[in-house]
Amino acid sequence: MARQIADLLTAKAQHERIARQDELERLSASLNNDGARVIHVHGIAGIGKSTLLEMFADQSRAEGVTILRLDCRQIEPTAQRFLQALSEAAGGDNHMLDALAERLSCLGKRVVLALDTYERFGLLDAWLRQVFIPHLPDNVYVFLFGRERPIPAWYTTPGWHELFDTFELQALQDHDAITLLKRLGLSTQSATGIAPMLQGHPLALHLAASAMRERADLQLSDASLQRVLEILTRMFLEDVRDPLTQQALEAISVTRRATVSLLHALFPDQAPQDLYERLSHLPYVEYSQDGLMVHDAVREAISHTVKARDPNTYQAYKRNAWQQLLSDLANASPRELWRYTADMLYLIENPVTREAFFPSGTTRQAVETARMDDNNAINAIIQRHEGYEAAQALLSWWKRLPQTFVVVRGKQNQAVGLCCRLDSKKIEPRWLESDPITHQWQQHLQRHPIPEHQTALFCRRWLSEDAGEDPCAEQASLWIDLKRTYLELRPGLRRVYLTVRDLPRYAPVAQTLGFEVLENCGVRLDGHLYHSVVLDFGPASVDGWLSRLAAAELGLSQTGSELDNATHELLLDGERVSLTPLESGVMQHLLTCRHRAISRGELLREVWGTHYEGGSNVVDTVVRGLRRKLGSNAERIETIRGIGYRLRE
C-alpha cells in the first residue's frame, strides 16, 4: 500500500497547486512590491503549510529567486546555532551576523529565507524580530511557516506595521476537496460522500483516500477532525501489510525521530538498517538531517493508538529509547547536543517541561532586553509589588546592570512584566554582597562550590504589572525565555537560584523540575520572608537534567536504580551494600556520566570539591574500595589508561 500511496503524490502536488493558487499568488506578490518583508503563514497540523512552501519554492526558483529553506526542528533555538545553520545553507564561511548579511546580499536580487515548523522557534522569536531581521539587506524576504499565530509584538512594535503580513492557511473548499479525492483514485460518489466529514483537511483527505482504495465500505462518523484522523491513521496502520514495518512505525511514533542506533535499541533482534529503509519508503515518513520523521499529525495519532491499546509496550518503547539517547548523549559533540536535547524533551510528557521549551497556544508575549525608556514602567512595577527594602535591593541592579533585565511587552509595546538574571561569574562580588538575597546565594556557592568551567544563574526576581510574582501570562512568557538562556549557557550552566515569597504555591511544580529549598537561607524584607530555591543541573548541565526528568517520568533512575543517594547504599543482587560518602559520590558521578571516560581531575572537582588540594591518588583509593564492594561486578569500573575511569553496562 505504501508504494500505491507514494504513486499518488504527483497527482496530489498538481491538484494542491491549483487549490492553493490564491495563497501562491499572495506569497509571490510579496516579492514584487515594497510592502511586507516578513510573511507569517500559520495553520493547524496537516493543513498543508510545508506543501505550500515547497510549491512556492519550485515556482519562485523558476523565476530566478534564491530560496534558503531551514527546518526549525533541526536547529537549536539559540542565535549562535541559527546563524551557523544559515551560514552553511548560504555557503558562507563566517557565522557572524554582519558577514552573513553581506553574504545574503550577494546571492541575487531576491532572496527568500523560509523557516518551516516555525512553532519550534518560540524561544528565538524576539531575537529574530529585534536583532536578526533588522540586520538583513533589502534583497532578503523572510517567510515563517508554523502552527501558531504570530505574537502581538510583530504588529505593535514601532516600524513593523508596514513590513509584516500574516495569513492563516485555511482548509480546502468542498469542490477542491472532492477533486483531490477523485485524483487520489476515488469515485465521484465516494468522494462526494466522504469529503464533508474531512473538513477540507489535506492530510485527512490523503489518509481517507488511501484507506478507501482498500476498503470501499469505509464509514466515518460525523466526529471531530482529530477523531477522524485517529480512525484513518489506525486504518492506515492496518494496511501496512508487513508486520515488522508496522511495528517499527508504531515504535518510532513515541520518539521525535528515528535513527539507525535508535532502531537497534528498540529492536535488538532485527537489522536496524533494514528497518530504517523500510520506514523511509512510507509516504508520511520524511527524511531529514536528523533522521526519519513521521508527519506530526500522523505520529500523534499513532502514538495515541499505541498508548491506548498497549500502555506497557508504549512505556517500553520510551524506556529503550531513553537508554539509547543517554548513551548517544555522552558522545555527542557540542553541535549535536540540541538533537538529543529535543529527543529527551519529546519523551517527557509533563506539560510543565514540554511547554517551557516548545511553547504552544496564542498567549505568548514578547520578551526583550529592557531599554532605558522602560525605566518608569520598571520602577512602577517593582514599587507596586515590593516593599521599600526589597524594592531598593532590586532597583540597585537596574541602576548598575540594566542589561540584566528583560521585560514582557504588552499590546501597546509597554513593559508589563520584568525579570532580572545575573551570571554569577560576571558580577562584582561586592555587588552580590550588598544585596541580602544574592549574598545568601553567594555564600551557598562558597559552601558548595561548582567547577571553574561552570557557572550559576541568579534569577533575582520576576514580577508582572498586575499579578506580581503570581502565575500569569507574563510570568509564563518570562519562564519560556529563561529556557533560551539555559540553552545559551549550556554546558557551562550548573545551577539556577531564584527567590519566591509564596513558596507553597510554587512548591509542587518546583519539586517536579528538581528545585530544592535552601534551608536557613531565607531573607526577611519589609516583613515578608523571601525563600531561596536552587536547581543543580549536575555535571552534564541542562542535558543531564532533562534526562533525569525523562527517567523519573518513565519510572527509571538516571543512576540505574542501583544507588540510593539518601542512605549511601548500593543495590547488588537484591542486597544493600553500604558505601562511604566518597564512594557514593564517585559512584553517583560514574553512573551519571556512564559510557564516558571520567578523568581523576573531574572526579576531584565533582566529589571532593574545587578547593581540594590533595593528590589524585585519593581517587584510586576510593575506586579500589568500590571495586571490592562490587564483587563480581568490579570489572564494570574500567580503567582508562592516562585518563581515569569509565562505568560500563
Outline of this structure?
With 649 residues, the protein is of the alpha+beta class.
How would the blueprint of this fold be written?
Blueprint: H1 2-7, H2 9-19, H3 21-29, E1 38-42, H4 49-62, E2 66-71, H5 79-90, H6 97-105, E3 111-116, H7 125-132, E4 140-146, H8 153-156, E5 164-168, H9 174-183, H10 188-194, H11 202-214, H12 225-238, H13 243-252, H14 260-266, H15 272-280, E6 285-288, E7 291-294, H16 296-309, H17 311-330, H18 337-347, H19 351-357, E8 367-369, H20 375-385, H21 388-400, E9 405-409, E10 415-423, H22 429-434, H23 436-447, E11 455-464, H24 473-489, E12 493-500, H25 503-513, E13 516-517, E14 523-525, E15 528-536, H26 541-553, E16 563-564, E17 569-572, E18 575-578, H27 581-592, E19 598-599, H28 600-608, H29 617-630, E20 637-640, E21 644-647
Parallel strand pairs: 1-4, 1-5, 2-3, 3-4, 11-12
Antiparallel strand pairs: 6-7, 8-9, 9-10, 10-11, 12-15, 13-15, 14-15, 16-17, 17-18, 19-21, 20-21
Name a few traits of the molecule.
5-stranded parallel sheet; disordered N terminus; 5 domains; 16% strand; 8-stranded mixed sheet; 21 strands; Rossmann fold
